[in-house]
Amino acid sequence: MKSNRLIQFGILFVFLNFACVFPVFSQSNSIRIIGSVVNEQDEIIKGAAILIKQSTTGTVTDLSGNFSLDVPSLPIVLLVSYIGYDTQEVQVNEADGTVKVKLTQTQKTNPSPTEPEPIYQAIDQTDEIPQPIGGREEWHKYIAKNIVYPANDRKSGIQGVVLAVFNVTSEGKVQDVELLRGIGGECDQEVIRVISASPDWIPAKQDGKPVQSRMRVPILFRVDSDKQEDIDKWIKEKAVSEAYGRHFVVVGYSSPSSTK
Protein backbone atom coordinates (compact mmCIF):
# COMPACT_ATOMS: atom_id res chain seq x y z
CA MET A 1 0.00 0.00 0.00
CA LYS A 2 2.80 2.37 0.93
CA SER A 3 4.72 1.62 -2.25
CA ASN A 4 1.63 2.27 -4.38
CA ARG A 5 1.21 5.62 -2.72
CA LEU A 6 4.81 6.52 -3.49
CA ILE A 7 4.27 5.56 -7.11
CA GLN A 8 1.19 7.73 -7.41
CA PHE A 9 2.53 10.81 -5.72
CA GLY A 10 5.90 12.48 -5.97
CA ILE A 11 6.89 15.39 -3.79
CA LEU A 12 9.75 17.44 -5.10
CA PHE A 13 11.52 20.67 -4.22
CA VAL A 14 12.35 22.77 -7.28
CA PHE A 15 12.80 26.34 -8.35
CA LEU A 16 9.69 27.51 -10.17
CA ASN A 17 8.12 30.87 -10.66
CA PHE A 18 4.66 32.22 -11.18
CA ALA A 19 2.71 35.37 -11.70
CA CYS A 20 -1.04 35.56 -12.02
CA VAL A 21 -3.51 37.93 -10.41
CA PHE A 22 -6.11 36.38 -8.14
CA PRO A 23 -8.08 38.83 -5.97
CA VAL A 24 -9.46 37.24 -2.84
CA PHE A 25 -11.49 40.16 -1.46
CA SER A 26 -14.64 41.49 -3.05
CA GLN A 27 -17.93 42.86 -1.87
CA SER A 28 -20.72 44.99 -3.33
CA ASN A 29 -19.66 48.20 -1.55
CA SER A 30 -15.93 47.77 -2.06
CA ILE A 31 -13.57 50.26 -3.67
CA ARG A 32 -11.24 49.08 -6.42
CA ILE A 33 -7.58 50.12 -6.36
CA ILE A 34 -5.64 49.88 -9.63
CA GLY A 35 -1.86 49.91 -9.59
CA SER A 36 1.47 48.64 -10.84
CA VAL A 37 4.76 47.53 -9.27
CA VAL A 38 8.20 48.28 -10.72
CA ASN A 39 11.82 48.19 -9.59
CA GLU A 40 14.30 51.04 -9.33
CA GLN A 41 14.92 50.87 -13.09
CA ASP A 42 11.17 51.15 -13.77
CA GLU A 43 11.10 47.53 -14.92
CA ILE A 44 7.87 45.67 -14.18
CA ILE A 45 7.78 43.15 -11.35
CA LYS A 46 5.62 40.13 -12.06
CA GLY A 47 4.25 38.18 -9.11
CA ALA A 48 4.70 40.87 -6.44
CA ALA A 49 2.34 40.38 -3.50
CA ILE A 50 -0.03 43.16 -2.44
CA LEU A 51 -1.73 42.77 0.94
CA ILE A 52 -4.00 44.98 2.99
CA LYS A 53 -2.02 45.69 6.16
CA GLN A 54 -3.00 43.60 9.18
CA SER A 55 -5.00 41.19 7.04
CA THR A 56 -4.46 38.31 4.64
CA THR A 57 -6.55 39.93 1.92
CA GLY A 58 -4.61 40.67 -1.21
CA THR A 59 -3.54 39.83 -4.73
CA VAL A 60 -0.43 39.55 -6.92
CA THR A 61 0.73 41.46 -9.97
CA ASP A 62 0.12 39.98 -13.40
CA LEU A 63 2.53 39.48 -16.31
CA SER A 64 2.46 43.24 -17.00
CA GLY A 65 3.23 44.14 -13.40
CA ASN A 66 -0.30 45.43 -12.84
CA PHE A 67 -2.81 44.65 -10.11
CA SER A 68 -6.33 45.45 -9.00
CA LEU A 69 -7.60 45.01 -5.46
CA ASP A 70 -11.02 45.59 -3.92
CA VAL A 71 -10.82 47.21 -0.47
CA PRO A 72 -13.57 47.95 2.05
CA SER A 73 -12.76 51.65 2.56
CA LEU A 74 -10.19 54.42 2.15
CA PRO A 75 -7.66 55.47 3.28
CA ILE A 76 -5.95 52.10 3.54
CA VAL A 77 -2.37 50.84 3.84
CA LEU A 78 -1.04 48.21 1.44
CA LEU A 79 2.02 46.01 1.97
CA VAL A 80 3.86 45.39 -1.30
CA SER A 81 6.56 42.72 -1.34
CA TYR A 82 8.62 40.59 -3.67
CA ILE A 83 11.53 38.22 -3.18
CA GLY A 84 14.83 40.12 -3.13
CA TYR A 85 13.20 43.51 -2.50
CA ASP A 86 12.35 45.46 0.65
CA THR A 87 8.68 45.34 1.60
CA GLN A 88 7.04 48.73 1.16
CA GLU A 89 4.03 50.21 2.93
CA VAL A 90 1.86 52.32 0.66
CA GLN A 91 -1.02 54.44 1.94
CA VAL A 92 -3.82 54.89 -0.58
CA ASN A 93 -6.12 57.82 0.17
CA GLU A 94 -8.24 57.82 -2.97
CA ALA A 95 -9.03 55.44 -5.83
CA ASP A 96 -8.60 57.98 -8.64
CA GLY A 97 -5.73 57.17 -10.97
CA THR A 98 -3.15 54.37 -10.80
CA VAL A 99 -1.00 53.59 -7.77
CA LYS A 100 2.60 53.09 -8.85
CA VAL A 101 4.82 51.29 -6.36
CA LYS A 102 8.59 51.24 -6.77
CA LEU A 103 10.44 48.55 -4.81
CA THR A 104 14.07 48.81 -3.74
CA GLN A 105 16.34 45.78 -3.99
CA THR A 106 17.40 44.35 -0.64
CA GLN A 107 21.06 44.82 0.22
CA LYS A 108 22.58 41.37 0.74
CA THR A 109 25.01 40.86 3.62
CA ASN A 110 27.19 37.80 4.15
CA PRO A 111 25.43 35.56 1.63
CA SER A 112 25.65 31.83 2.23
CA PRO A 113 26.36 29.98 -1.02
CA THR A 114 25.76 26.58 0.53
CA GLU A 115 22.36 27.21 2.15
CA PRO A 116 19.40 27.59 -0.23
CA GLU A 117 16.67 30.12 0.33
CA PRO A 118 13.68 28.84 2.29
CA ILE A 119 10.54 28.10 0.33
CA TYR A 120 8.46 30.20 2.72
CA GLN A 121 8.88 33.99 2.66
CA ALA A 122 8.27 36.68 5.28
CA ILE A 123 5.94 39.48 4.20
CA ASP A 124 6.19 41.78 7.20
CA GLN A 125 9.43 43.60 7.94
CA THR A 126 10.73 42.75 11.41
CA ASP A 127 14.10 42.74 13.15
CA GLU A 128 14.02 38.93 13.16
CA ILE A 129 11.78 36.91 10.86
CA PRO A 130 9.88 33.85 12.11
CA GLN A 131 11.63 30.50 11.91
CA PRO A 132 10.13 27.01 12.12
CA ILE A 133 11.01 25.15 15.31
CA GLY A 134 13.55 22.59 14.18
CA GLY A 135 14.67 24.70 11.22
CA ARG A 136 13.56 25.32 7.66
CA GLU A 137 14.44 21.87 6.37
CA GLU A 138 12.28 20.19 9.00
CA TRP A 139 9.35 22.38 7.95
CA HIS A 140 10.02 21.56 4.31
CA LYS A 141 10.01 17.86 5.22
CA TYR A 142 6.73 18.29 7.09
CA ILE A 143 5.04 19.76 4.01
CA ALA A 144 6.52 17.11 1.72
CA LYS A 145 5.42 14.28 4.00
CA ASN A 146 1.88 15.47 4.62
CA ILE A 147 0.60 17.16 1.49
CA VAL A 148 -1.27 14.97 -0.99
CA TYR A 149 -2.37 15.59 -4.56
CA PRO A 150 -6.15 15.02 -4.35
CA ALA A 151 -7.13 12.11 -6.57
CA ASN A 152 -10.12 13.89 -8.10
CA ASP A 153 -8.00 16.89 -9.10
CA ARG A 154 -5.24 14.67 -10.45
CA LYS A 155 -7.70 12.73 -12.59
CA SER A 156 -9.34 15.97 -13.78
CA GLY A 157 -5.99 17.50 -14.73
CA ILE A 158 -6.30 20.38 -12.27
CA GLN A 159 -2.82 21.82 -11.79
CA GLY A 160 -1.08 25.10 -11.06
CA VAL A 161 0.44 27.27 -8.36
CA VAL A 162 -1.37 27.82 -5.06
CA LEU A 163 -0.04 30.80 -3.09
CA ALA A 164 -0.92 30.68 0.59
CA VAL A 165 -0.46 33.34 3.27
CA PHE A 166 -0.64 32.78 7.01
CA ASN A 167 0.10 34.44 10.32
CA VAL A 168 2.71 33.30 12.82
CA THR A 169 1.44 34.71 16.11
CA SER A 170 3.60 36.15 18.86
CA GLU A 171 3.20 32.75 20.56
CA GLY A 172 4.50 30.97 17.45
CA LYS A 173 1.15 29.49 16.38
CA VAL A 174 0.15 29.20 12.71
CA GLN A 175 -3.21 30.90 12.13
CA ASP A 176 -5.42 32.57 9.50
CA VAL A 177 -4.29 30.53 6.51
CA GLU A 178 -5.75 31.99 3.32
CA LEU A 179 -4.99 31.96 -0.39
CA LEU A 180 -3.72 34.77 -2.58
CA ARG A 181 -4.01 32.43 -5.55
CA GLY A 182 -5.94 29.22 -5.93
CA ILE A 183 -6.50 26.72 -8.72
CA GLY A 184 -9.87 25.33 -7.71
CA GLY A 185 -10.82 21.76 -6.99
CA GLU A 186 -9.55 20.18 -3.77
CA CYS A 187 -5.94 21.37 -4.05
CA ASP A 188 -6.73 24.73 -2.47
CA GLN A 189 -8.22 23.15 0.65
CA GLU A 190 -5.36 20.65 0.82
CA VAL A 191 -2.85 23.50 1.08
CA ILE A 192 -4.91 25.21 3.78
CA ARG A 193 -5.26 21.92 5.69
CA VAL A 194 -1.57 21.08 5.74
CA ILE A 195 -0.32 24.56 6.61
CA SER A 196 -2.98 25.01 9.32
CA ALA A 197 -1.79 21.81 11.01
CA SER A 198 1.92 22.62 10.71
CA PRO A 199 4.19 22.68 13.79
CA ASP A 200 4.82 25.81 15.85
CA TRP A 201 7.33 28.47 14.88
CA ILE A 202 9.76 30.72 16.69
CA PRO A 203 7.91 34.05 16.35
CA ALA A 204 9.27 37.18 14.71
CA LYS A 205 10.88 39.79 16.93
CA GLN A 206 10.69 43.56 16.88
CA ASP A 207 12.72 45.58 19.39
CA GLY A 208 13.52 42.34 21.18
CA LYS A 209 9.87 41.38 21.69
CA PRO A 210 7.95 38.59 19.93
CA VAL A 211 5.38 39.91 17.44
CA GLN A 212 2.92 38.49 14.96
CA SER A 213 4.12 38.27 11.37
CA ARG A 214 2.71 37.25 8.00
CA MET A 215 4.29 34.58 5.82
CA ARG A 216 3.61 33.19 2.39
CA VAL A 217 4.43 29.91 0.68
CA PRO A 218 3.92 28.86 -2.96
CA ILE A 219 2.98 25.26 -3.75
CA LEU A 220 2.70 23.97 -7.30
CA PHE A 221 0.54 20.99 -8.19
CA ARG A 222 1.66 19.32 -11.42
CA VAL A 223 0.11 16.42 -13.30
CA ASP A 224 2.72 14.20 -14.92
CA SER A 225 0.66 12.86 -17.80
CA ASP A 226 1.00 12.06 -21.48
CA LYS A 227 -2.47 13.38 -22.24
CA GLN A 228 -2.23 16.37 -24.54
CA GLU A 229 -4.79 18.38 -22.58
CA ASP A 230 -2.75 17.94 -19.38
CA ILE A 231 0.45 18.88 -21.19
CA ASP A 232 -1.21 22.01 -22.62
CA LYS A 233 -2.40 23.05 -19.17
CA TRP A 234 1.08 22.58 -17.75
CA ILE A 235 2.69 24.60 -20.55
CA LYS A 236 0.20 27.41 -20.00
CA GLU A 237 0.86 27.41 -16.25
CA LYS A 238 4.61 27.32 -16.75
CA ALA A 239 4.33 30.37 -19.02
CA VAL A 240 3.29 32.43 -15.98
CA SER A 241 5.81 30.74 -13.67
CA GLU A 242 8.85 32.93 -14.24
CA ALA A 243 8.92 35.44 -11.46
CA TYR A 244 8.70 33.99 -8.00
CA GLY A 245 11.41 31.90 -6.43
CA ARG A 246 11.70 28.57 -4.70
CA HIS A 247 8.49 26.53 -4.54
CA PHE A 248 7.16 23.27 -3.25
CA VAL A 249 6.06 21.00 -6.07
CA VAL A 250 3.54 18.20 -5.68
CA VAL A 251 3.54 15.85 -8.66
CA GLY A 252 0.61 13.57 -9.37
CA TYR A 253 1.26 10.68 -11.72
CA SER A 254 -1.67 9.69 -13.91
CA SER A 255 -1.98 6.55 -16.00
CA PRO A 256 -0.76 6.79 -19.60
CA SER A 257 -3.55 7.57 -22.06
CA SER A 258 -2.72 4.40 -23.99
CA THR A 259 -3.57 2.06 -21.12
CA LYS A 260 -6.91 0.28 -21.04
Question: Could you list some keywords that capture this structure?
Answer:
260 residues; alpha+beta; TolA/TonB C-terminal domain; Immunoglobulin-like; 2 domains; six-stranded mixed sheet; four-stranded antiparallel sheet; 5 helices; 18% helix; disordered N terminus; disordered C terminus
Tally of separate helices: 5
Main sheet: strands, sense, barrel: 6 strands, mixed
Residue stretches low in confidence (pLDDT < 50, at least 5 long) are 1-27, 256-260
CATH level 3 topology of the largest domain: TolA/TonB C-terminal domain
Kindly state the number of beta strands.
17
Helix content: 10-25%
Distance between the termini: 22 Å
Mean pLDDT: 80
Could you characterize what this model shows?
- Helices cover 18% and strands 36% of the residues.
- The protein is an alpha+beta fold and 260 residues long.
- It has 2 domains: 2-17 and 119-253, TonB (TolA/TonB C-terminal domain, 2-Layer Sandwich); 31-102, Carboxypeptidase-like, regulatory domain (Immunoglobulin-like), CATH 2.60.40.1120.
- The strands form 5 sheets. Strands 1, 9, 11, 12, 16 and 17 form a 6-stranded mixed sheet that branches.
- It is globular, with a radius of gyration of 19 Å.
